[in-house]
């Protein structure tokens, strides 16, 4: 369980930083969201996460950062509800990936 908490807190910190940066209208948004995507896909490292699982976590991280900035500006209940749903999906995905056991490497026969 500590691995899950570390992964989730790390990703939430990255998303919060991106939301703060994206609040400003003059911020170039492509590098910020690309950095969030890269961080989101790297967070499941050490688990058996395949491409689809890493992509799901990374995509929800980008959505959380973008909707977090929108909700922070006070653009309504829909942005806040979407943010809550994406955070729930992200947390469940990270919990599921962190609880899987790593399979031991197959032994080579001589």
Short description:
The protein has 110 residues and is mostly helical. It has helices at residues 2-23, 29-42, 51-72, 77-99.
Q: How would you describe what is shown here?
A:
With 110 residues, the protein is mostly helical. Helix content is 74%, strand content 0%. The protein contains 4 helices and no strands. The longest helix is centred in the C-terminal third of the chain and has 23 residues, at 77-99.
Stretches with pLDDT under 50, minimum 5 residues: none
Mean pLDDT: 82
- Rg, alpha carbons: 16 Å
The percent of residues in helical segments reads over 70%
> Could you give the count of β-strands?
0
Q: Which overall shape is indicated by the principal axes computed on the Cα atoms? A: elongated
Strand content is under 5%
Calculate the terminal CA-CA distance, rounded to whole Å. Answer: 38 Å
Biggest pleated sheet: none
Q: Structural class from helices and strands?
A: mainly alpha
**Could you spell the SSE succession in H and E letters?**
HHHH
Give the number of helices: 4
SSE order and pairing:
Blueprint lengths: L1 H22 L5 H14 L8 H22 L4 H23 L11
Helix pairs in contact: 1-2, 1-3, 1-4, 2-3, 3-4
Task: Name some characteristics of this structure.
about 110 residues; elongated; mainly alpha
């Amino acid at each position: 369980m500590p691995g899950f908490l570390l992964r989730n807190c790390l990703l939430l910190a990255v998303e919060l930083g991106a939301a703060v940066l994206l609040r400003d209208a003059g911020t170039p948004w492509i590098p910020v969201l690309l950095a969030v995507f890269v961080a989101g896909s790297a967070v499941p490292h050490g688990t058996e996460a395949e491409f689809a699982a890493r992509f799901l976590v990374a995509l929800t991280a980008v959505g959380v950062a973008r909707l977090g900035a929108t909700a922070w500006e006070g653009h309504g209940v829909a942005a806040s509800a979407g943010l809550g749903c994406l955070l729930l999906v992200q947390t469940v995905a990270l919990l599921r990936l962190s609880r899987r056991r790593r399979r031991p490497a197959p032994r080579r026969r001589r």
